[in-house]
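Kindly go through the following sequence and its backbone structure tokens. Advise at your convenience whether the structure tokens fit the sequence:

___
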Amino acid sequence: MLRIKKLDIFISKQFGLLFVGTFFICQFVLMMQAVWKLVDELIGKGLSMEILAQFFGYLSVMLVPQALPLAILLSSLITFGNLGESSELTAIKAAGISLMQTFRSLIVITIGISIASFYFQNFIGPKANMKIAQLLISMQQKSPELEIPEGIFYDGIPNCNLYVQKKNLDTGKLYGLMIYRMNGSYEDQQIILADSGMLQATAEKKHIVLTLWSGEWFENMQAQEMAGTASVPYRRESFIAKKIVIPFDMGFSLADASSLANNARAKSLMKINHDMDSLVLYYDSVGQSFYRSAVDAFYPVRKLSRTDSLVVVQQVAKTEYNVDTAFSKLRDEEKTRVINFARSRIQAAVSDYNFKGMMMDDADRLIRQHQIEAFNKFTLALSCIIFFFIGAPLGAIIRKGGLGFPVLISVLVFIVFYILDNTGYRMSRIGEWTVWFGKSLSTVVLTPLACFVTYKANNDSVVFNIDLYRNFFMKLLGLRLKRHIAGKEVIISDPQYASDATELQRISDEVTEYSHRHRLISAPNPIKVFFRYSPDNEIERIVGELEHVIEDLSNTKDKVVLTEINHYPIVSEKAHTRPFDRKWMNITAAILFPIGIVLYIRMWMFRLRLLHDLRVIKQTNEKIIARIGEMGV
């Protein structure tokens, strides 16, 4: 029977309060980011407070699944950071309770939040997405003068196609205007050219006033009753300034949702699977139809029966027909006509295939969008669990509460998640990556990180020890570590100066003999280095004896001796013998030619450094021996 312990209740309360607060903070930040992207859709549209309230309400609901993982990450990190900072986590471990047992209640809560996130995305989120899309389309239709793009024709105004070469967002002026107006039939169209203009709404929001400067007006007159004016097919007017009133109801009305039928974000998982089957079936039939028409166009013999097609092929094979010869026999005007006919057929075929290719690309994009949204419902829910197993162990390791360092760590982790997820989404949307790979990229990358920090926290391993990493990289890069021995305020026993001097003299003799015998200045034998390694026990013994003497002399009160022992270098005992401790790693490094060369040169440098260190040791020994002699002890 599952028992709920007081510790579980205590940790759950700590987490719950922080989760509620961090959730609203994350929700606010995400909403500000979304509003910043959509600020052009909201400003200057004359929207009522009711419409704005609906917009922000649906937007907040739509962003809930994205705020949940970040809130879990931040709240779990702060929770266990506070427990570690106040030594409560240490007391829990001292009581024999492991870290995973401490996580037990929050794991259950996080799984519940993950399930709720999936339910929210599957049933509530799609409705919010549909409402947001409807509101955005309605806002765009409400004030078309703000939506007119540069460089392309805009048909948002009824019975008008408007082209703007450039527009000034500060003044609202439009430059390089070209307007096509169709009041009735195609023959009654009007063409207006103007150097500049401005669109403004009337006070009652029922009309748009288009003010134009320095332009010309061309109007087709064929549909008008003008007796005896058949020789004047159109009317041309030049103007310096002109105003045109265009009927346009700018009152806010919600757009029809039928145009958003292919919006995958506004569908549940069951609806996505159903619509994907329909889309795949429909576009497969369209693709097969395109294929059959292409085959029939290039191979018309396939339309005949098998017997008739064989007869045609045999007749063509018997006939000696050369296209170049037949073409050369034509007259010049016939050649021109044949070339033009062939060119027109090729252009028509290219246009047809471009259109069909664009249609199939749109089909693939639509199907991929549905697949992406189906995967997204699972990955966002799973990210709640992954973020917990990143935030909680990190809090136990860092042991810093509050909103300082935890917020920094959470932001860095979320930035990595956002970049990976957004990259995978974009690459999947354009078809460069498969959908399952793109949408699972962030999950696959962050899952090992969650396992790593959880393992380290559960085993009380040191992860954020700066000195440990500094020493590791200094050793890896061959950077020298300096010796720092300070004078002691309280000395229990004085150094054995006489025996230390005798020991230093013996070490100097051994250092001299070692340098002559091993010839450290010469290059090492690569066979012995990578394949036939033998340990250098002698230098390890010498360095060990020297460190023993240094430890004894560190109890001295003499400043000269204390200064001299700080001149002893920290000797790398094994770096001059082989690159790695394990034999198979040395053999692998030798086989990988570029890496082996680099390691070989690095090891030679360590041999030269060892030669220099032995000389420094000998010189320092002489100085300390002389100083001990001066002290007369």
